[in-house]
């Protein structure tokens, strides 16, 4: 009888041709129902497959079969390797058409500061203090990456970093909590837009959750000793800003957090990220971070590592395969509740639906090359590179006069194409504009411009000496115990000066450097970071005064590596002014927030809408800035706070807002900030934000040493 009924039903379907599509394939169905429907159809092995992100290797002969079996939820395309858009769609077609449930694969790649068009490294982007421009760069990066089949980028990196010895300080927005939060959220918005499923958008995976930048001694992967207060005041807020901006994924970090590794840490991954913040995307482990729980010494074997990571809240395992190879048995043996597997699978499926992968699994552009290196991309890269550069010294030699008789361009970075930092995406050095290209294109017609190798030299009106760090001297696990210019570049600078040249030093760096031995011989000193594809044009725009430099340091530049860690917003001490060494003070060579331009700005006194207010009231702070020089320029008005007496010690100064404004010569602008209860709050003993009565010093200005202050008193 049963066979008969099944046959009748099958015939009916054949005749009507209307086999009922399962709910999860219905794009009009609510997302949660599609997830539930699909989950209900999955067997355990397929579920564990969705939690696996192996490395894509073009020579992997088992990949097609594994995708067909539903054992590959996602693929990571590694740094330096490439996945052709056509190959990506071929693999996707196997997943969608051959696997039992047709669940699409999620393709992830490190689009860190551009895909083919490279923008400045993230530390340079932060130095622009221009989040709108940062967002534009991420939008372009997403457009290029999605055209080539990428669905998810492992960016933004928002690890607050205060030790320049750490190579990965180059990848985030520096030492400040607010800058990492503002730029992280801007990049998330740029990548995802208001709907990450739309053409030209990709998902953002914010990393490395959490505290990775506090690695002991600036040595990558080392443990971090962080109190919950330090986590909540300093390292977590940038991630919260990115989650609030809609990031679809978070990457759990390598580091141990005071005894519990970040990739097995229920406090951060579950209690804070999910229960307190309501994050409903998925958590991806960093590279092999799940299996490394064994090396951390909290798992006796791979099965225990997998159970601990998944239980804590790591949904998907990058490049190790313990979830797929051990969790079926762990579930069978009741060492892992099946419900926790379902929780993780739901998170992954939610993101795949949210990214539109089920409804539009084939994303590559038919002619992807047309989407790369567009004029708009190059224009944006040039502007962002120029705005990222920070002028630290200028005796008046800049901007260079078009009437100069002779310019010598020298140093390794005069013609180097090593301008993309450590993460290079799909960047090709041949796309880059070198400094030599840029200077030649803008020098005065009557100026004799020569490229001189470092060995030879000549006496000229100006010597532009281009020095720096190679991309392999920073980035992942490229930590330096000596942060001066490498391989004797200081000597080249000194010799040029001693020959009687006016010396303009341009530095291509990935971290704050100890430039103490450079400053005396530099008539001008410009920090260019690794500025990306339009490097040479951006440098020339600034050297010849097409634009005034407007970058401000997102990180302190120390006098010596011996001062590290060194950052502006450290907690007060019981003996202020004793922050020093026997042979050196505790102040940076160049402070956070500092930078020069080709004009001057004057500030009014700071005005508060009220000097006495009740806790919880909003107060406005206003200041008027005037361009008192002769050139149009951008200025970043910075607003700082010091809570003079609170239940817990607070930073001596903390950036709470900033505004970058462009002013013509003689033009004034009144900049108004809202000082909100959230900014004034301190975390109480239970880490709840509370606004306490007392005095708050509010200060504003364009450079840290010249701030205008007012006292705000909160009274009950
Ligand atoms: C690396 C990095 C992480 C990167 C990932 C994929 O080890 O720690 O930042 O996104 O692996 O390349």
Quick summary:
By secondary structure, this protein is α/β, with parallel strands linked by helices. It contains 20 helices and 27 strands.
Structure report:
The structure is a single chain. It is built from 20 helices and 27 strands. It is globular, with a radius of gyration of 27 Å. The relative contact order is 0.10. The model is unreliable at 12-17 (pLDDT under 50). The structure holds alpha-D-glucopyranose (GLC).
Features:
single chain, 20 helices, 716 residues, alpha/beta, binds alpha-D-glucopyranose
Write the layout of secondary structure elements.
Elements: H1 2-16, H2 31-41, H3 44-50, E1 52-53, H4 63-68, E2 74-77, H5 85-98, E3 106-109, H6 122-127, H7 131-147, E4 152-153, H8 177-192, E5 203-209, H9 228-235, H10 237-244, E6 249-252, E7 256-257, E8 260-261, H11 266-276, E9 282-285, H12 293-296, H13 302-312, E10 317-318, H14 322-332, H15 338-354, H16 375-388, E11 390-394, E12 406-410, H17 435-442, E13 448-451, E14 462-468, H18 489-498, E15 502-508, E16 524-527, H19 535-543, E17 601-603, E18 607-608, E19 612-613, E20 619-627, E21 633-643, E22 654-663, E23 668-675, H20 677-680, E24 682-683, E25 689-690, E26 694-701, E27 708-714
Parallel strand pairs: 1-10, 2-3, 3-4, 4-5, 5-6, 6-9, 12-13, 12-14, 14-15, 15-16, 19-27
Antiparallel strand pairs: 7-8, 11-16, 17-20, 18-20, 20-23, 21-22, 21-26, 24-25, 26-27
The structure holds alpha-D-glucopyranose.
């Amino acid at each position: 009888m049963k066979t008969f009924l099944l046959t009748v039903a099958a015939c009916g379907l054949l005749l009507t041709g209307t086999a009922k599509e399962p709910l999860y394939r219905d794009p009009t169905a609510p997302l949660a129902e599609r997830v539930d429907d699909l989950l209900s159809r999955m067997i355990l092995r397929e579920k564990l497959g969705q939690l696996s992100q192996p490395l894509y290797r073009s020579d992997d002969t088992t990949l097609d079969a594994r995708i067909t079996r539903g054992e590959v939820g996602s693929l990571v395309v590694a740094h330096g390797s490439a996945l052709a858009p056509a190959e990506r769609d071929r693999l996707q077609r196997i997943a969608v058409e051959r696997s039992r449930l047709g669940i699409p694969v999620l393709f992830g790649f490190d689009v860190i500061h551009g895909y083919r068009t490279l923008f400045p490294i993230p530390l340079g982007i932060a130095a622009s203090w221009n989040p709108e421009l940062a967002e534009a760069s991420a939008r372009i990066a997403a457009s290029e990456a999605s055209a080539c089949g990428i669905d998810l980028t492992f960016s933004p990196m928002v690890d607050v970093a205060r030790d320049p010895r750490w190579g990965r300080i180059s990848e985030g927005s520096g030492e400040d909590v607010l800058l990492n939060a503002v730029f992280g959220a801007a990049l998330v918005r740029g990548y995802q837009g208001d709907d990450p499923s739309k053409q030209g958008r990709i998902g953002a995976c914010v990393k490395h959750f959490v505290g990775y930048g506090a690695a002991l001694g600036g040595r990558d992967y080392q443990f971090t000793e962080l109190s919950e207060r330090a986590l909540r005041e300093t390292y977590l807020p940038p991630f919260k800003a990115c989650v609030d901006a809609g990031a679809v994924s978070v990457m759990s970090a390598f580091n141990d957090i005071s005894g519990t590794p970040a990739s097995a840490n229920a406090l951060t991954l579950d209690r804070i990220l999910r229960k307190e913040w309501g994050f409903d995307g998925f958590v991806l482990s960093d590279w092999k971070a799940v299996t490394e729980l064994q090396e951390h010494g909290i798992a006796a074997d791979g099965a225990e590592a997998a159970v601990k990571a998944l239980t804590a809240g790591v949904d998907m395992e990058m490049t190790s395969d313990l979830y797929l190879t051990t969790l079926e048995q762990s579930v069978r043996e009741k060492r892992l509740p099946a419900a926790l597997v379902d929780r993780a699978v739901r998170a992954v499926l939610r993101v795949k639906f949210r990214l539109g992968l089920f409804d539009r699994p084939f994303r590559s552009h038919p002619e992807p090359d047309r989407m790369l290196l567009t004029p708009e991309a190059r224009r944006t890269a040039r502007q962002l590179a120029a705005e990222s550069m920070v002028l630290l010294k200028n005796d008046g030699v800049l901007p260079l006069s078009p009437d100069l008789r002779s310019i010598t361009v020298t140093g390794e970075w005069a013609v180097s194409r090593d301008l993309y930092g450590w993460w290079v995406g799909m960047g090709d050095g041949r796309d880059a504009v070198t400094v030599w290209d840029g200077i030649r294109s803008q020098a005065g017609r009557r100026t004799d411009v020569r490229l001189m190798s470092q060995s030879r030299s000549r006496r000229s009106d100006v010597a532009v000496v281009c020095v720096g760090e190679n991309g392999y001297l920073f980035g992942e696990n490229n930590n330096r115990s000596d942060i001066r210019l490498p391989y004797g570049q200081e000597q080249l600078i000194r010799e040029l000066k001693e020959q009687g040249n006016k010396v303009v030093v341009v530095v291509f760096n990935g971290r704050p450097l100890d430039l103490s031995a450079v400053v005396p011989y530099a008539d001008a000193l410009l920090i260019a970071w690794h500025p990306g594809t339009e490097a040479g044009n951006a440098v020339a725009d600034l050297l010849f005064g097409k634009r005034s430099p407007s970058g401000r340091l997102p990180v302190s530049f120390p006098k010596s590596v011996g001062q590290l860690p060194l950052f502006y917003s450290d907690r007060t001490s019981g003996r202020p002014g004793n922050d020093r060494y026997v042979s050196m003070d505790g102040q940076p060579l160049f402070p956070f927030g500092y930078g020069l331009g080709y004009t001057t700005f004057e500030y009014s006194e700071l005005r508060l809408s009220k000097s006495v207010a009740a806790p919880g009231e909003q107060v406005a702070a206003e200041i008027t800035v005037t361009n008192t020089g002769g050139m149009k320029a951008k200025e970043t008005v910075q607003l700082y706070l010091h809570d003079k007496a609170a239940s817990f010690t607070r930073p001596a100064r903390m950036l709470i807002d900033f505004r970058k404004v462009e002013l013509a010569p003689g033009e004034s602008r009144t900049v108004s900030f809202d000082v909100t209860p959230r900014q004034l709050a301190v975390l109480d003993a239970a880490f709840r934000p509370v606004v306490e009565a007392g005095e708050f010093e509010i200060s504003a200005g364009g450079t840290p040493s010249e701030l205008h202050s007012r006292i705000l008193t909160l009274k009950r």
